[in-house]
Amino acid sequence: MTPTMSASSRRSWHISDPGLAGSGRSKIAWAESQMPVLLHIRARASRTQPLKGLRIACCLHVTTETAHLMLTLKAGGAQVALCASNPLSTQDDVAASLVKDFGVAVYAIRGEDRQTYYRHIETVLASSPHLTMDDGADLVSTIHKHPDRFGESVIGGTEETTTGVIRLRSLEAQGKLRYPIIAVNDANTKHLFDNRYGTGQSTIDGILRSTNRLLAGSVFVVCGYGWCGKGLAQRARGMGARVIVTEINPVQALEAVMDGFGVMPLAAAARIGEIFVTVTGCSSVIREEHFRRMKDGALVANSGHFDVELDLPALRRLSRSRRVLRNGIQQHVLKDGRRINVLGEGRLVNLACAEGHPPSVMDLSFANQALACEYLNRYAKRLAPKVYPVPAELDREIAALKLKALGVTIDRLTPAQQRYLAGWELGT
């Protein structure tokens, strides 16, 4: 049950248990050594104060990696308020440490109900932020649904994930977006690494922690072959699974074929699959027609941002009973006796059943967030209310810093090569 939010806590924090701070502090310390790019940006920001006087409202997964982003924003002079972007992604001990050890205003409790989830969002927005930082666009959508209550002081924002960018582009297309937002998700140093390597590994981690299943030899169905799906399919194949990809996009389906995966409609895959994971950013990907075809004992999980990728109401209608078998597994017994096991309540399985992405990959994503905030503070007033990419120079800077931290050096163009690439005269 979610603790009651008192008047005093509403002003400063609302978390599960401040007594968990010691555990959270240790986890934050462990992640630090794996986030060199963000630490470099933090050290520079502490000297130059590029965010001085800014209030930033953040709706993100409250994890050890997010803690380092909050500390980086604070070091740069910002005042931050943080709430969860998913009811099951909060690490309560990290939230406690942020409040107790670092003075961050956190409003997040693992397992919070829908009412508390949105109350936390509204509390963060009540801080009259200048910038919003979103993962899934619930913060931005709340501002746009209640324009008379929120957002008057906002000059710009950032968005972390594919699902959120989809929602923001919908707002932009309808001419309703109120301020410029940088799509951090679309930076090369985000989607090529976080989405592919982070989602691939952390999704497998969530499945294994919750089920203790052997992947080798299993039929593993990946629904969606975007960057997240690519990473997941690669990791599952690397552990010996027989991977099937389902897609609606012919280009991505062709890419999956050329990468050596089986490709077929989900209706066909449902009959032979043993483990199903959605990573699409869409709704009702696995529906009643698919549940009806699944084998007894099928595992179903979602690694997209919202649980709507699985039509769980349809599954409940098909079921005669439900029970929790292990932490993170709810088994639905269908009317014909077949059992379908849903992981992490259909929410992000890598966070609901594990710890999310490794710090080393979030180092890149959150470096993008930090630098995007600095950029918006300088240029937001010149930008129209549209969705913008991360400036290419910031993307390259982050990649260069990561290479330096890894001890990797690369070549540079010679003057002659620069002239060649800048000209048109030379041919065959």
Question: How would you describe this structure to a colleague?
Answer:
Helices cover 46% and strands 16% of the residues. It contains 18 helices and 15 strands. The chain has an 8-stranded mixed β-sheet with strand order 9-8-7-10-11-14-13-12, sandwiched between helices. The chain has a 7-stranded parallel β-sheet with strand order 3-2-1-4-5-6-15, sandwiched between helices.
How is the secondary structure organized here?
Blueprint: H1 7-12, H2 21-32, H3 36-48, E1 55-60, H4 64-75, E2 79-84, H5 92-102, E3 105-107, H6 114-125, E4 131-134, H7 138-145, E5 156-159, H8 162-173, E6 181-183, H9 188-211, E7 219-223, H10 227-238, E8 242-246, H11 250-258, E9 262-263, H12 266-272, E10 275-278, H13 288-291, E11 298-302, H14 312-318, E12 319-326, E13 329-334, E14 339-343, H15 349-352, H16 359-379, E15 387-389, H17 392-406, H18 415-422
Parallel strand pairs: 1-2, 1-4, 2-3, 4-5, 5-6, 6-15, 7-8, 7-10, 8-9, 10-11, 11-14
Antiparallel strand pairs: 12-13, 13-14
